């Protein structure tokens, strides 16, 4: 017992003795040494970790075709809540590692859809068979697919999936994923696996707009003028130009230009470029401008239209289209103003009671021989679309009266 009690006392005495190192007690010196050892060990571990990470980055840079399975930038996506649910929580993408057998990512649920695996989409489209192709363009190829449960979908396989593809993919997922409109196909989910970038949409049994405009629908199109204007207005409220697939960037002015061509295509039933037509009619924009300048507005209408619109409605649609394709990008209206122009029943014939209108109207009367298309390209505040429109109102009213006579 005495020996057991003596040993702790002996250790305490030894640790309490002062050393030659600044007169510090032994236990203080031991504590300092242990702490220093821990700090050195942590420093060495951090150096090792940093070195390995730098080597990994070097190998990644040497292999430019390698793209991470899922970018950190798209691991969390916030989307607007559906209209029916006023206060839902923001949707989050939960990323899970794939199992050892498949090697691919697991399905992750989103607020508005799913994260599909490549394996699922291959099975749904029969290995992306040619007979399942329902559309293609510069952005990629669209396949018809059938998921488990006999659920039909449209799978868009983005062809430009290298370089800036991740950014393009992220832009489309974030932009289209939150859009909700009856005239726009709903995005169900996406696939980001290896170099593959795909989008999964709901399948529309009735076909797409291109099929109804340019397909074999018989001598009379089922798309009446009212239906076409509803499509134009609905699309304008959620429009995203297709050229982002090749640039990775959404440019507001180019977006408006593309929408203007779309409006022309819906009005005329023609393709933007058709080499099967005469030389002066190959380019839709140039041909339509020529027809309008020759005061032959009705001549641009789709011959398959079951009924002709009123002169006012036609000129309003043409005016919107021509303003959108203004050669000067800065003079093109914003999409919000395009929607306002389309929704305004009295545009461009409403009375403007602001000062200076009579002077503008007088100028319009003096320039009566000037073609409408030319005046549309004159300088003006196209962001508000009114300045150059004001100079056209009197002449448009006059022409409307002439046409009715």
From TrEMBL:
Q: Where does ATP bind?
A: 156
Q: Which PROSITE patterns match?
A: PROTEIN_KINASE_ATP, PROTEIN_KINASE_DOM
Gene Ontology cellular component annotations, sorted alphabetically: membrane
UniProt source species: Salvia splendens (Scarlet sage)
Designated name of the protein: non-specific serine/threonine protein kinase
At the top level, the lineage of the source is Eukaryota
Give positions of region: Disordered.
81-104, 349-405
Record keywords: ATP-binding, Kinase, Membrane, Nucleotide-binding, Phosphoprotein, Serine/threonine-protein kinase, Transferase, Transmembrane, Transmembrane helix
The cross-references to InterPro entries, in alphabetical order and at most eight, read: Kinase-like_dom_sf (IPR011009), Prot_kinase_dom (IPR000719), Protein_kinase_ATP_BS (IPR017441), RLK_Ser/Thr-Kinase (IPR052232), Ser-Thr/Tyr_kinase_cat_dom (IPR001245)
